[in-house]
Request: fold
Amino acid sequence: MSSIRVWQGDITRLAVDAIVNAANTSLLGGGGVDGAIHRAAGAELLAHCRLLGGCRTGEAKITPAFRLPARYIIHTAGPVWRGGEHGEAELLAACYRNSLALAEQHSLQSIAFPAISCGIYRFPHELAARIAISELRRAQAADGSLRELILVPFGEDMARLYQRLLAEA
Ligand code: AR6
Reply:
């Protein structure tokens, strides 16, 4: 049985099998956690991403992690929040589900997620956290290769939110 835990800090420091990148559909880098991951992984990551042909919103693609302590990066493009009536919740759930499915396909044991869409893409934090936890719990119940499922809030507020929601039944 896998565990779900919260680790607050910079996701680029984690020595897990895969860290997830909250990317955009170009997969060619950007600001926020995407910028931090590209800076820390080095220029080889961008060169590799150029070959991938982008990624549709809700989908996920895997690359090596180059100079990061993690083994792989799973890049997913989260939805931009546009009021909630444009399929945003389903697309965010798809980001988690497709990232988890890729990790399982590669027989990975540990994966760490930033708060996808919760920065520049302005997704409401509580709804995003509920979606993240619900998808991680689904993976936990499926009982595949993953043993460690890590939620990585950058700030204190997001960390408290995850802890509160995880404590709920
Ligand atoms: N480690 C962990 N979490 C982080 C880090 C870090 N080093 N840096 C930021 N966060 P965002 P989005 C948190 O804006 O909303 C990029 O330009 C941050 O506090 O990175 O999905 C892409 O290229 C927030 O809670 O991603 C896209 O164009 C969370 O990560 C766009 O931003 C996500 O914030 C994607 O926007």
